[in-house]
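**Archive record**
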Amino acid sequence: MKFLVDTHAHTIASSHAYSTLYDYLSVAKTKGLKLFAITDHGPDMADAPHFWHFVNMKVLPRIVDGIGVLRGIEANIKNEHGEIDFFGDYLKELDIVLAGFHEPVFPPSTKEAHTTALINAIASGNVDIITHPGNPAYPIDIQRVAAAAAKYNVALEINNSSFLASRKGSAPNCIEIANAVKEAGGLLVMGSDSHVAFSLGEFEKAVEVIETVAFPIERLLNRSPEALLNFLTARGHKSLNEYSALID
């Protein structure tokens, strides 16, 4: 099965990334992708875009040449309370909200601290997807996090970049996470975590994890634009009707 939806990509607004939105659209068209999200790092990261970057995403067209572009963020989880670095009514203006641990904002701590922070972020109602939860630098109680994610209808990410460019040693954790989410009745999503447009929609290693645990395809958000859009609508995001042309 070819997956034509990607929820995790960074532009040059995150200055350790190397592509523009235009670059991503060009690659998406070449690869036949139908929908992807721009999710630059939240403003508490040292080289992240300014807060206004996310406020002004309303100027972006939602569909370009038949390709859907979701207005999003990869926010930073700031503390054990699960607070993130984007807030209030501004969150409601975004189409998708990812959040995860990043060392400059939340230095690695204890397994219990990481678990508490993730569960609180999940329960907050502010986060749709938890990014790279398999990062070995941030050990978690996988069963508890998977149960919380299923309870609050939050997806956990299998991050393809974690097997290639960063977060080495993630594979065993990701397999355990996929199994735990499967048993808890929750949702998974695969993210390329692209920092250059060429890797948009690339999920080869993440697919291996999905196949290893025989994860149910009906609970994988990348399976279609409709699946992701229905999930985001159920999560309370508005104005997604503009993407209706992408639904077969």
Notes: The chain has one domain: 5-246. The helical segments are 21-31, 51-55, 88-92, 111-123, 142-151, 171-184, 204-212, 225-234.
